[in-house]
Amino acid sequence: MGSMEVHEELRSAQPKVWQFMFAFTDSMALKSSVGLRLADIMHSHGSPITLPQIDTSCLDIPYLARLMRMLVRKGIFAVHHSSNDSDETLYKMTHISKWLLHNSYLSVAPMILELWHYLSQCVKEHFASQNPQFNNLFNEAIECTANIVMKATVSHYKEGFDSIRSLVDVGGGTSGALAEIVKSYPHIKVINFDLPHVVATTPMCEGVIHVGGDMFDPIRNANAVFMKWILHDWNDEACVKILKSYRKAISDKNEKFVFVVIFVQEDDNNIFGDMGLVFDLLMFTHTTGGKEKTE
C-alpha cells in the first residue's frame, strides 16, 4: 500500500475520532431536553408547536432553536411540515421523546437527570443513606427502569408465576414495579427486600410487604427469589455467595430463581447495540468489582 493510500485512510478516520470525542454532547442535549421538559410541554399542547409556544420560562429562542436542531437531527423530536404558508417551524414528538415524559409509567426521564453528577460522592460509604435527595433520585431512576422490565417480564413469563406462592424481590427498591406482579398474580405473597434506608421511604403498596435488611442475610420461608439487575453489582465470587445463601434459605423443593440480567456479547447485533458493553463500563465506575455477565 502506497503512502497516498495510507494518508487517505488516516484522513478518512479523523471524523470518527472527533465523533468519539464529542459523543457526550448527545447525552447532554438529551439531558437538557428533559430538564426543560420539552417533551412534557409538547405532549400537553396536543399538536405540533412553535418555539415561542415551547418557551414558558423566558428562554433564549435562538439558543433553543439550535438545541432543537440537534434533537431533531438525532430523532428525538421531529419537524412538522404545515400545509399552510407559515414560515414558523413546528415541532412534534417522536416515539423516542415519548420515553422522556416525566409522569408516564413507561419513562426513563428520572434516569437521565442528575444521578450521575453524584458519582464522586458515591465513593463515600453509605452516601445514599445519608443524603435523602440522592436517595430519592436514585430510587426514582431505578424504579423507572424497573417498570419497563417488570411489564415485559410479567407478560412473557406467565406460566412461571402461576405456581409461586411467595416471592422475595431482592433489591426491590421502592416496589412500584412489584405492583405488576401483584396485579397479575394476586395469590402471590410478595416481599420487597432492600436496604433499610430504601424501604424507609417506600410508599405502601397493597399486597407487598417491605422488609429492610442485608441481601447477604437472606429472608427465609419464600419459595421464589426474584433478582432484577442485582448480580451485575458484584464480582463472580460474591454472586456465588449470594446464590448459595438464597438456595439454602429456600427449603421448598420446587423453588424458583427468576433473574433479569444483561449479557455482554461482543458480536451481538440487536436493537440495543453496544448497551451491554456500556453498562459493563458503568459497573466498574459505579461499583466495586461489579460487571455485566458473559454467561
From TrEMBL:
Record Pfam families: Dimerisation, Methyltransf_2
Superkingdom of source: Eukaryota
Positions annotated as active site in the UniProt record: 232 (proton acceptor)
Keyword tags: Methyltransferase, S-adenosyl-L-methionine, Transferase
GO biological process: methylation
Keyword Transferase: yes
Record domain O-methyltransferase C-terminal: where: 129-295
Domain O-methyltransferase dimerisation: 18-102
Gene Ontology molecular function: any one: protein dimerization activity
Name assigned to this protein: Uncharacterized protein
Upper taxonomic lineage: Eukaryota, Viridiplantae, Streptophyta, Embryophyta, Tracheophyta
